[in-house]
Design brief:
This protein has 2 domains: 201 residues, Isopropylmalate Dehydrogenase (3-Layer(aba) Sandwich), CATH 3.40.718.10; 145 residues, Isopropylmalate Dehydrogenase (3-Layer(aba) Sandwich). Helix 1 packs across helix 12. 37% of the residues lie in helices and 18% in strands. It starts with 18 loop residues before the first strand and ends in an 8-residue tail after the last helix. An 11-stranded mixed beta sheet has the order 3-2-1-4-11-10-5-6-9-7-8, sandwiched between helices. The protein has 12 helices and 11 strands. The chain is α/β, with parallel strands linked by helices.
């Protein structure tokens, strides 16, 4: 049972209704429970929360397993939504049982968000093979979120704030969990237009940005080099971008850009600041994720855009190889929690103390 708002005494703030953030454990045999517990007891995060002009409470969605269920020493408003799935956990060994548990954690969090109990959900990583073993054919959590919310334009966007310059990297993927051989078949003018619309709408709604430069990657080496290394850029990528640009004069579309050169400006802005596109559209998974993880492996956050509520997730997997050893780094989970709060604040019109 999720507690009522009256169960928490909100601090004096411009917005007295607490932001309620649900945190799921992900696959309980992985590092999800550990990074959630470490994040919620992290002094830096607690200090950051005290600086915010709004109260925040947390609901942990999972089973009390793995020795990471003792959060009583924290001064945060934390309660449990214990699903009691009776899962047996052996750290580092994901199976159908832990896969089913992680699926139920996500379903419970989505249901709560759709009821309005949660303003945002932060999900720890799941194991796709665990879901498959449990009979769930979804490629990942993003696809479940899209199906449950009936979102017609969901998107997987990765965001990270540079510790060097404060610049924010934002990368949306046009295609997600499909084999590379299928990418040219799935990419179409309609899909590209939809993803540009999704990116534009998220930048407005979630980040408070009304315009700027959007960089779009090419598909082929050298962006096709005039058709010698592939024809997609000339036959439909350039015309599609031109049509979208004409319909969206507040935004400047740069592309299709040769993929190997696309990230040079991002790297410079990450380390030194300066001018760079406010967001990037990568055409397939690794084209976007390799630079994200090179620049911000422990800081990048997966944001599912186009949903009726905020969802974030750390940009790492279950890490079964180190599960149960107590050595998992919670940095990305901490960042996911911070981004969830900031994006929720932006949607509520509460603003933010940081530059999203």
């Amino acid at each position: 049972m999720v507690p009522a708002l009256s169960d928490f005494a909100p601090r004096s703030a411009p917005f007295t209704i607490p932001f309620t953030i649900a945190l799921t454990f992900g696959d309980p045999a992985g590092i999800g429970p550990e990074v959630v517990a470490k994040a919620l007891t992290d002094q830096t995060l607690r200090n950051w929360l005290r600086m915010q002009p709004w109260p925040v409470r947390f609901v942990v969605v999972g089973d009390r397993v793995g020795g990471w269920d003792d959060l009583a020493d924290t001064d945060l408003a934390i309660v449990w939504q214990d699903l009691a799935t009776n899962v047996t956990v052996c750290p580092g060994i994901g199976n159908a049982q832990t896969g089913e548990a992680s699926f139920q954690y996500l379903q419970a969090a989505i249901a709560g968000a759709l009821r309005g109990d949660y303003g945002a959900i932060v999900t720890a990583p799941i194991a796709k093979h665990g879901w498959q073993a449990a009979g769930h054919t979804y490629p990942g959590q993003t696809e479940v979120l899209a199906a449950r919310t009936q979102s017609d334009r969901p998107g997987m966007l990765f965001a990270a704030r540079s510790p060097h310059s404060g610049w924010v990297l934002r990368v949306l993927l046009a295609t997600v969990h499909i084999p590379l051989s299928q990418v040219p078949l799935v990419l179409t003018p309609a899909l590209l237009t939809t993803k540009l619309d999704t990116l534009r709408d998220s930048l407005r709604r979630d980040f408070g940005l009304a315009g700027g430069t959007l960089a779009v990657a090419g598909l082929n080496p050298h962006a096709g080099e005039g058709g010698y290394l592939g024809t997609e850029e000339e036959t439909w990528l350039k015309p599609t971008l031109a049509v979208w640009q004409a319909a969206n004069p507040d935004w400047r579309v740069w592309g299709p850009v040769p993929p190997d050169a696309l990230w040079v400006g991002a790297a410079r802005a990450w380390y030194h600041g300066g001018e760079a596109p406010i967001a990037y559209l990568a055409l397939y998974h690794d084209q976007g994720l390799i630079p994200v993880k090179m620049l911000a492996f422990d800081r990048a956050v997966n944001v599912t855009v186009g949903l009726p509520f905020v969802r974030t997730s750390p940009d790492h997997g279950t890490a079964f190889d180190i599960a149960g050893q107590g050595i998992a780094d919670p940095s990305s989970m901490i960042a996911a929690i911070q981004w969830a709060i900031e994006l929720t604040a932006q949607r509520r019109g509460a603003g933010s103390r940081t530059n999203l």
